[in-house]
Amino acid sequence: MRRGVLIxxxxxxxxxxxxxxxxxxxxxxxxxxQRLGGYDKIASIVDDFSVREDADPxxxxxxxGFSTDxxxxxxxxxxxxxxxxxxxxxxxxxxxxxxxxxxxxITEAQWKAAMGHLGAAFDAAKVPAKEKGEVLEIFTKxxxxxxVKP
Length: 150
Hints:
CATH topology of the largest domain: Globin-like
Order of helices and strands: HHHHHHH
Structural class: mainly alpha
CATH class of the largest domain: Mainly Alpha
Strand content: under 5%
Radius of gyration: 18 Å
């Protein structure tokens, strides 16, 4: 009986979510992905972020020990993650945040530095403050899962 209730509830949520999406499309509302400028814009922002991160001695330890190919794969995963989370057509197929960051012992200072570089990359790409804030909020909500240490 409970299983039936759960399935019914999930089905209702899917239908409701579909209705919201349809209403937004009917009203001409653009997704965050579209407002950011699409995949190419996201890719250029992530590439800029990577250069900034690599240049930061505080964050450099997170990029040591990877082959060139593995480093490119990590950047691709970040592009897909942002694309998917902002309503784009991508599918992030990486690990969950907790698993992906387990054992890294990311400090608050490193977190702030990374978010600062990400924000600077959005600024350099001339992304409006509203959209930049929405993307940074996506990451801020993930902070507990990433396991940032005070």
